[in-house]
Design a protein that fits this description.
Layout: H1 2-5, E1 7-12, E2 15-20, E3 23-29, E4 34-37, H2 46-53, E5 58-61, E6 78-82, H3 86-92, E7 99-103, E8 108-110, E9 115-120, E10 129-133, E11 138-140, E12 150-151, H4 159-171, E13 178-180, E14 187-188, H5 191-204, E15 220-224, E16 227-231
Parallel strand pairs: 4-5, 6-7, 11-13, 12-16
Antiparallel strand pairs: 1-2, 2-3, 3-4, 8-9, 9-10, 10-11, 13-14, 15-16
Helix pairs in contact: 4-5
The protein binds zinc ion.
Residues 23, 66, 68-69, 143, 182-183 line the site of zinc ion (ZN).
Length: 233
Amino acid sequence: MSEEFYKVIKVSDNTWSIESDMVRAWLFTGSDKALLVDTANVHGNLAEVVKAITDLPVILVNTHADGDHIACNDQFETAWMHEKETELYLSRAGEGFAEPAVLSEGDTIDLGGRVFEVVHIPGHTHGSIALLDRENRVLVAGDTISDRPVFLFGEARDIPAFQKSLRRLKEMSKDYDQILASHGSCCVGPEQIGNEIVCLEECLAGKVAAEEPPFPIPAKMYCSHGAGFYLTL
Ligand SMILES: [Zn+2]
């Protein structure tokens, strides 16, 4: 049953992408533990899929609490997330969902020989985070960086904070070569951050034409410079 929901792609020796319905969870392993980042959009048996990949104890981290990242949180006991995300998470959590445990800027998640560092990047939601693996030069960026349009309208969005977070990620880009995204292409280069910065500036300046989104949402789609956003301007 699980296979029909999830497509597992081994990206490297210790990294898997678990894709379902236009969103991607990530699984990383170290020598002692595994890290699952987000729990997808559809409610299959994600825990079983993870178990088939690794028998290491699994730490679940949510990049943020949008519905397409927490659907299988009921299959885990604890969900680590930024301290500013717990309120939104609890307002959206269904029955039996994992209890939130809090992460802060600079906290590290040590899997044994593989360490991820928490980077707070508010904007998409107040408690959105990225995870930086300095040694492997990889950034897991949730919904903030993508080559598909990023949702920037509705509850918990903060456009000025999002712009500030983009600038910060750009400044940090000497620390990573690859960005692992939740939507669109699985891996994009740091140049996508610059694309989003320019695109969003142009959107806010009224220089980008509004298009109809490919699905019914109360926002318009704006695309330029290889980046895009769903916005209500
Ligand atoms: Zn998402």
